[in-house]
């Protein structure tokens, strides 16, 4: 049997940090009834992070972590559709005004990346 564990990845680390912020918020609130919501949410996030870290289903945890990272990652390309044939053309971001040549029909058009 394989006993590999996932450990602390970006998603688990983020869950722990949010839980710590909620725990600090809980200590600042004076009303006992209102204090229950962030306190319970903080504990739930800590438990979820621990379950993720101790899980042996590393493929599923890696998939969840990759989806979390890709949600915040900026795409290095900008996409434009060709005015003639509507083909999607991919160009690098941050190049300023450039002339784009459609790979399908050869139409040239100028766009700002």
Number of spatially distinct domains? 2
Oligomeric state of shown chains: single chain
The H/E string reads HHHEEEE
Unreliable segments of 5+ consecutive residues: none
Distance between the termini: 51 Å
Helical fraction equals 40-55%
General form: elongated
User: What portion of the residues fall into strands of 2 or more residues?
Assistant: 15-25%
Spatial sequence of strands, sheet with the most strands: 1-2
Structure explained in plain terms:
This protein has 113 residues and is of the alpha+beta class. It has 2 domains: 10-72, no CATH class; 77-112. It is built from 3 helices and 4 strands. A two-stranded antiparallel ribbon has the order 1-2. A two-stranded antiparallel ribbon has the order 3-4. A hairpin with a 6-residue loop joins strand 1 (77-81) and strand 2 (88-92).
Layout of strands and helices, then pairs:
Elements: H1 10-28, H2 32-54, H3 58-72, E1 77-81, E2 88-92, E3 97-101, E4 108-112
Antiparallel strand pairs: 1-2, 3-4
Helix pairs in contact: 1-2
What's a concise summary of this model?
This protein is of the alpha+beta class and 113 residues long. The protein has helices at 10-28, 32-54, 58-72, and strands at residues 77-81, 88-92, 97-101, 108-112.
Could you list some keywords that capture this structure?
two-stranded antiparallel ribbon; 113 residues; 2 domains; 50% helix
């Amino acid at each position: 049997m394989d006993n590999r564990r996932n450990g602390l990845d970006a998603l688990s680390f983020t869950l722990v940090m949010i839980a710590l912020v909620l725990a600090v918020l809980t200590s600042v609130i004076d009303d006992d009834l209102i204090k229950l919501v962030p306190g319970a949410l903080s504990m739930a996030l800590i438990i979820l992070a621990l379950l993720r870290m101790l899980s042996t289903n590393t493929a599923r945890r890696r998939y969840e972590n990759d989806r979390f990272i890709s949600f915040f990652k900026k795409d290095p390309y900008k996409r434009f559709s060709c005015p003639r044939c509507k083909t999607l053309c991919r160009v690098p971001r941050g190049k300023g005004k450039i002339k784009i040549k459609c790979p399908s029909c050869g139409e040239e058009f100028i766009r700002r990346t």
